[in-house]
């Protein structure tokens, strides 16, 4: 992508230190262990507050992974932030073994990465970064009292056969929109009702934003497990009312999904992910030694390239835990 001048950020009063990243200074091993339900369920998973980037940073709500369930298809990480008048400033940091998905509802974010990409992310446009064997990026935005920053950051675990692919970046300003009854569905990743996103996916999955005004029956893949995350408004999915800060896990086995109300929610799904993985900091690997090698590569300035144009130092790598990280499957 051709480099161009980015926006200026005058008068930044409070850094909003988050983005498609895990900025915890002492990240714990994330044990991906829960199995997909064999049939349809309605299981609310209460998220937890996570302060990212220090005492002055905004708190996000993390609804995946949770203690009760760790993955929905290949989706392995969900942070919901805002709406709030705040500025985002995330220094360069690494990723490996996953795809990052940025989806905004309001505000703007400037993305830079070690491939040389420079892209403004706006509401309704998909930012997809495939880390593969290693990439680094930064994110920042302007604080504005007129425009609230509100978005969701997600990770998709890459399967073993594709997790060492060359890193690449995609930005999709035009995504397919499906109308079903009182629902307007923007297909972010995967397919729904014959509408297919142009974004590259490495496992069968679905990511969609649903704007509902009334009621609808959404056609879904019965072999996928699904979950719904409320973004705004008052919405019922499969007869259960969605609550902010709670991911509603729906299991497998549905060929249609009943939704109603007035609002907006994120619908996630995918074929159950059967591989054992290790999640730590901003990496998805398969062993302790692999995670340690990723960390060392970042600490020594290798593997992940250089993000140019960001005014500041890269994020330091946190210390590894004192015990060895273990790969975990979806069944305890």
From TrEMBL:
<feature type="binding site">
    <location>
        <position position="95"/>
    </location>
    <ligand>
        <name>Fe cation</name>
    </ligand>
</feature>
<feature type="binding site">
    <location>
        <position position="137"/>
    </location>
    <ligand>
        <name>Fe cation</name>
    </ligand>
</feature>
<protein>
    <recommendedName>
        <fullName>Pirin family protein</fullName>
    </recommendedName>
</protein>
<dbReference type="GO" id="GO:0046872">
    <property type="term" value="F:metal ion binding"/>
</dbReference>
<feature type="domain" description="Pirin C-terminal">
    <location>
        <begin position="215"/>
        <end position="301"/>
    </location>
</feature>
<feature type="domain" description="Pirin N-terminal">
    <location>
        <begin position="60"/>
        <end position="156"/>
    </location>
</feature>
<dbReference type="InterPro" id="IPR012093">
    <property type="entry name" value="Pirin"/>
</dbReference>
<dbReference type="Pfam" id="PF05726">
    <property type="entry name" value="Pirin_C"/>
</dbReference>
<feature type="binding site">
    <location>
        <position position="139"/>
    </location>
    <ligand>
        <name>Fe cation</name>
    </ligand>
</feature>
<feature type="binding site">
    <location>
        <position position="93"/>
    </location>
    <ligand>
        <name>Fe cation</name>
    </ligand>
</feature>
<keyword id="KW-0408">Iron</keyword>
<dbReference type="InterPro" id="IPR008778">
    <property type="entry name" value="Pirin_C_dom"/>
</dbReference>
<dbReference type="InterPro" id="IPR011051">
    <property type="entry name" value="RmlC_Cupin_sf"/>
</dbReference>
<keyword id="KW-0479">Metal-binding</keyword>
<dbReference type="InterPro" id="IPR003829">
    <property type="entry name" value="Pirin_N_dom"/>
</dbReference>
<dbReference type="Pfam" id="PF02678">
    <property type="entry name" value="Pirin"/>
</dbReference>
<dbReference type="InterPro" id="IPR014710">
    <property type="entry name" value="RmlC-like_jellyroll"/>
</dbReference>
<comment type="similarity">
    <text>Belongs to the pirin family.</text>
</comment>
């Amino acid at each position: 992508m051709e480099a161009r001048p980015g926006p200026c950020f005058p008068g930044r009063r409070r850094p909003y230190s988050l983005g498609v990243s895990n900025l915890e200074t002492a990240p714990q091993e994330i044990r991906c262990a829960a199995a997909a339900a064999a049939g349809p369920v309605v299981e609310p998973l209460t998220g937890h507050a996570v302060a990212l980037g220090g005492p002055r940073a905004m708190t996000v709500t993390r609804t995946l992974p949770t203690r009760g369930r760790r993955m929905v298809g290949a989706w392995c990480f969900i942070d919901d932030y805002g709406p709030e008048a705040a500025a985002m400033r995330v220094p360069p940091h690494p990723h490996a073994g996953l795809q990052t998905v940025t989806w905004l509802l309001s505000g703007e974010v400037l993305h830079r990465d070690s491939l040389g990409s420079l892209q403004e992310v706006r509401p309704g446009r998909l930012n997809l970064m495939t880390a593969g064997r290693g990439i680094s990026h930064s994110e920042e935005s302007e604080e504005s009292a007129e425009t609230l920053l509100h978005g969701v950051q997600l990770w998709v675990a890459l399967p073993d056969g594709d997790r060492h692919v060359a890193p690449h970046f995609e930005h999709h300003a035009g995504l397919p929109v499906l109308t079903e009854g009182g629902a307007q569905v923007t297909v972010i990743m995967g397919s729904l009702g014959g509408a297919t996103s142009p974004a590259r996916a490495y496992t069968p999955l679905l990511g969609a934003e649903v704007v509902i005004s009334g009621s609808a029956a959404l056609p879904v893949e019965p072999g996928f497990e699904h979950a719904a995350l409320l973004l705004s408004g008052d919405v019922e999915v499969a007869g259960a009312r969605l609550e902010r800060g709670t991911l509603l896990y729906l299991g497998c086995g549905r060929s249609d999904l009943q939704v109603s109300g007035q609002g907006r929610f994120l619908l996630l799904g995918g074929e159950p992910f059967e591989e054992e993985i290790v999640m730590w900091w901003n990496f998805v690997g398969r062993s302790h030694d692999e995670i340690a090698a990723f960390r060392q590569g970042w600490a020594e300035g290798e593997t992940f390239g250089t993000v140019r144009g960001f005014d500041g130092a890269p994020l330091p790598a946190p210390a590894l835990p004192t015990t060895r990280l273990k790969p975990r499957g979806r069944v305890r």
